[in-house]
Amino acid sequence: MRFLSEEDSAALVTEELAYGAVREALIAAVAPTSTTFPALPAHGSDPRNRFTLKSAASANLAGVKIGSYWPDNTTGPRHNSTIILLDQDTGRVAAVVEAAKVNAYRTAAADAVAANTLANPNATTLTIFGTGHQAFYECQALAKIRALDKINVVARTEANGHAFVAELRNANLPATLTEAEQAVTEADIIVTATTARSPLFEADWVRPGTHVASMGSDAKGKQELPPDLLITASLYCDLPPQSTTIGELQHAPKHRDITAIGHVLTGAAEGRTAPDQTTVFDSSGIALQDLYIATALLGLIG
């Protein structure tokens, strides 16, 4: 059995590796040879300690990602991720990859792949809702695929907002703390990376042509976007059955067409067709992303 520790996987991962692996995974997700199984929520001995099992199989990979959240952990990250790859011939464990930092790259890479596919090519202003661990990686990943000249940060508390702006500026990203309405009306790309359970902004603040990504809705009851936006925008996601069950699109009208981004990447479906088309991408996070990025990391060490 092969093993990659958290320290080793964190040292190996890059935005470029994550982008390539996640793009490949999103394409694989829509192939007839792939199956993504329903996410299984669970908890530890203390019910506040939660974890989710996400599993999948493709033509040449099968395995599971265990994503955990231990809110009182003070010895390391409260969010952790462990990826288990199974040997396709024997069913035994072929590899274990500890992937807390990798998971942040993997999640942000899905955002970047979708934005590179759906956002206007001349998009320069990003608005980010959220100031937590994941929000930083979202900004970094999007800065790789669009020439951002402004990042509007919308924060729940002013102190967190100022701290996050400073963190982004230290990474040479042009961040400014901005009120929600101004941030949305100025945006070419809007990203929500929160744990919200109610909409973060109003639908009529969104300019035509904006690309919107919900990155935080990954459980029943979570909600970041206004329902009216899901009525009028073109809707895309990583995988429709999961997105409409635990993702942001659980709040979309049942009659709306929802397109898997993998079909756009292969040319089987249309993406953006006009500059004034408003697009929404819902990333609920699928297991194939984890299996593919784990395989890419293991490939670096032979």
From TrEMBL:
Name of a matching Pfam family: OCD_Mu_crystall
GO cellular component, one term: cytoplasm
The protein, known as: Ornithine cyclodeaminase family protein
Organism per entry: Umezawaea endophytica
